[in-house]
Amino acid sequence: MLGADEDSQKAAREALAAWPDSLQVGGGVNASNAARWLSAGASHVIVTSAVFRDGRLDEEALRELVAAVGRERLVLDLSCRRKKKDSSGVSSAAAAVSSSDDPYFVVTDRWQKFSDLEVDATTLERLAESCAEFLVHAVDVEGKSAGIDAELISILGHSSPIPVTYAGGASTIADLERVAEAGRGRVDVTVGSALDIFGGKLPFGEVVAWSRREEGERRGRKS
């Protein structure tokens, strides 16, 4: 939900009622209202700002959310950007241009504020104890339909101990294939503005067909 107004919430409730226990909902979700969204039909609730405050992970807020809905119904949004290292090797939000060896850090406040939480194996292992899935927007490529962030996807594929969905830059079937490859078949992907149903050029039907083939291949690799 991009807005806190009643119209946005009404639309979300209608969607959840139309396909109960199959959609996740995020946007303004916190410990006081999370259970209500599950009762309205959400399979999971997605949270960011409820647990990231003043640039830090609020451990107490996270514990309250887990107590309210259970770890198995909680998705943590770890949307991130690269953070430029200064000459001493310390990551700094002040630098204008980052490079391929700069680490990724969770961002909040509409992706404008860096937290102190790096997206790496240590963080993913620790947070996996409190949630069922991760949602990770690659903020530097999000909404540009200009290609994926393969390095971030590789980190997620190698390090996430729980299901993880990547979002950002996918605009062709080839991009989806690159996600599957970089993520070692362990990273799901979302497609938004690039879809023809939202005014983009990527046919929705082709994405569905690719997804079904990919799921079949994953099952084959596991069997």
- What sort of overall outline do the alpha carbons produce when their principal axes are compared? globular
Total E-strand runs: 11
Largest sheet: 6 strands, parallel
Radius of gyration: 18 Å
Terminal Cα separation, in Å?
38 Å
In CATH terms, the superfamily of the largest domain is Aldolase class I
CATH architecture of the largest domain: Alpha-Beta Barrel
Secondary structural class: alpha/beta
CATH topology of the largest domain: TIM Barrel
Q: What is the tally of helical segments?
A: 7
Strand order of the largest sheet: 1-2-5-9-10-11
Helix content: 25-40%
* Proportion of beta-strand residues: 15-25%
Q: Write down the overall mean pLDDT.
A: 90
Secondary-structure element sequence? HEHEEEHEEEEHEHEHEH
* Overall CATH class of the largest domain: Alpha Beta
Account of the protein in words:
- The chain is of the alpha/beta class and 223 residues long.
- It folds into two domains: 1-75, no CATH class; 78-223, TIM Barrel (Alpha-Beta Barrel).
- It contains seven helices and eleven strands.
- The protein has helices spanning 6-18, 34-39, 59-69, 121-127, 150-159, 173-182, 204-222; strands at residues 23-26, 42-47, 52-53, 56-57, 74-77, 80-82, 104-108, 113-118, 133-137, 164-167, 187-190.
- The strands form three sheets. It has a six-stranded parallel β-sheet. The chain has a three-stranded antiparallel β-sheet with strand order 6-7-8, with no helix packed on it. Strands 3-4 form a two-stranded antiparallel sheet.
- α2 (34-39) links the parallel β1 and β2 (42-47).
- The protein is globular.
- The model has no long low-confidence stretch (mean pLDDT 90).
